[in-house]
Structures are given as C-alpha cells and as structure tokens.
Amino acid sequence: MTLRVGAIVQALGGELFGDPDRQITRLAPLEGAQPGELSFLVNPRLTQLLAATRAGCLIVGPELAEAARARGDCIVAADPHLYFARLTQLWRRLHGGAARPGIHPSAVVEEGAFVDPSASVGALSFVGRGARIGAGSVLKQRVTVGEDCVIGARCLIQSGAVIGGDGFGFAPHEGAWVRIEQLGAVRIGDDVEVGANTCIDRGALDDTVIEDGVKLDNLIQIGHNCHIGKHTAMAGCVGVAGSARIGAHCTVGGAGMILGHLTIADHVHISSASIVTRSILKPGHYTGFFPLDDNEHWEKNAAALKQLSALRERIKRLERQQTPADDA
After folding, report:
1. Torsional class of 140: left (φ above 0), alpha (ψ -120 to 50), beta (otherwise)
2. Is 267 a known active-site residue?
3. Is 3's pLDDT higher than 60?
4. Which conformational region is residue 10 in: left (phi greater than 0), alpha (psi within -120 to 50 degrees), or beta?
5. Which of 94, 99, 98, 97 is nearest to 25 (CA)?
6. Nearest to 113 by CA among 84, 90, 134
7. CATH 3.40.1390.10 boundaries in the chain
C-alpha cells in the first residue's frame, strides 16, 4: 500500500514543497531510503547527508528547509522528530497492524476482573481477579496483570511484562527469612507504556504508583511501593529499588540504578549506568560512574581513590598548621 505526500500533509500539517501526488511506499532511515520512500532529518549538523540520500521526500525543520528544497521534495515542520512520530502512528492506522479490541481466546481473565470493551488483551496473557484495564489499552502477548492492579486508558504493555508480581519483602529470623506478604497492588495511569519483560512489583501495603504518561523501556525493574511521576522516561535495564519516589519529567539512561527509599525531584536527568545512592532534590543532569579505561590504568586510579580520605585528612592537618605569617 502507498500513501500520497499530499494526504500526509492534509492529515498532519506542515508545509509541502514538491509534488503532492508523490506516492510513498515506505518510511525509511535516511541513509538507505529509496525514491519511493520518506525519511526525516533533525540534526542540522548532518546537512551533508541531504546530498547523499535518495529518499523521495524528506521531513525537515525550518533551519534545513532551503537545503532540503534544493535537493527535492520535502515537508517542513516545526518539530520534524515529532512530525515523524505522528506519521508512524498514521501509517500504522492506515496500513493495519494495530491491535484490535477484544480478548484473545488463549488469554485468561479471572472472574471479577474488568477489561474495557475497547481494550485489547493479547494471546496467553493473564488478568487477575479485581484487576481493571482501561479504555483503549493494549496488552501484547504473554502479559501478566496481577490481582487488583489497575491499568489506565490508552496504555501499551509489551510482551512478557509483569504488572503486580510480589515485591521483594522478607524479615530475618534465626538465620532464615520469613516472607512478608505483599498486600498492595499497582496503579498505572493513562498513556503509560511498559516495555517487554519489564516488571513492576505490587506494594507491600500501599500501592506501587506509575503516573500518567510514564514510558518504561524493556527489562526494567520497579520495586514495590515506588512512585514514579508523570511523563518520566526510563531506558532499558534500569533498576529502581523499593519505596523510591521519582518526580515528574525525569529521565534515567540505560542501566541506571536508583537505591530504595530515595527521593528524586522533578526534571532530574540521570546518565546511563549511573548509580544513585542519595536523594536528588534539585533539578538538573546527574552522572555517577567511573569512566571506562584499560584495566592497568583503571586499577591505578581505583587505588588512588582509596587514598583520598587519608589525603583529605592530611591536607586538613597542614591547613591547621599554617601560621598567620604564611598567609601574608
């Protein structure tokens, strides 16, 4: 199937320079795009790629409009990345592949659970008793939603995700561990996306809460009783320990780790592979990891770090010994 460029602009806006009747057969990456395909370019520093691409039409921002027009057909949009995202949604709707409402015959929905008629529950999924799935939400294949958990409207839960597994709670007793039953649930707001094989644990007493618009990548672990604010996004393999509170509009890079019972303010951005060991109460960009090096240099630097405390005390002693004459 194809889509006219003119139809794209009519549906999504933007300013077209070129042939509105050009037929687009595929959305493609810039480097490998062919004459019947459409791509986009966001970064002005990559302007040299315009001359090399064979794409039939490009989506660009105003700063690249002149160069793109000199090359050929283009759509100029204020935010080409956002425009492309909306175009992928349009393409999905028009070319099929979108989930259909309903419950797959192989899925299990326990008595007392509620699935909105406009929601979709994929093959081999499980929805426990008392759980609620909101309007327009999609559970892909093999998703597990535990009892009493709530998923809001227009959420997308990817394959293998587990919503409402038991949190990790045990009390030590005479050298062994006694299980603490996890009596809370998970409450997920509207427009949330949860990646494949991501786990969100139910609370011990209160619920684990994921607010509206949160985006979680694959293979993320959210511990029990965590609270994640609106429109926060986390990349793959992030781990958040129990009872952490993360604010709104935060980001956590891949493999970042946040220890339990910490508080992260709104608009905090944590670099990939960083380990957060203390609360962050001020917005900003934070990084906490030891840079990669060849092993010999890494060992030397690590050995030096172990001496920092002693060096600090030595400097303090030297400062106390300093005489007024030395200051003159």
Report:
1. beta
2. no
3. yes
4. alpha
5. 94
6. 134
7. 3-95
List, for residues 242-280, the tens digit of each pLDDT value.
999 999 999 999 999 999 999 999 999 999 999 999 999
> 3-95: what CATH class?
alpha beta
Q: The tokens of 274 are what? A: 């960083």
Q: What is the largest CA-CA distance in the chain?
A: 88
DSSP string, 18-45: S-TTPEE-EE--TTT--TTEEEE---GG
Residues of the chain with CATH 2.160.10.10: 161-286
CATH (residue range 161-286): 2.160.10.10
pTM of the model: 0.90
Segment 11-68, tens digit of pLDDT? 999 999 999 999 999 999 999 999 999 999 988 888 888 889 999 999 999 999 999 9
Give the three-state DSSP class for 310: helix
Q: Which listed residue (104, 173, 224, 297) is catalytic?
A: 224
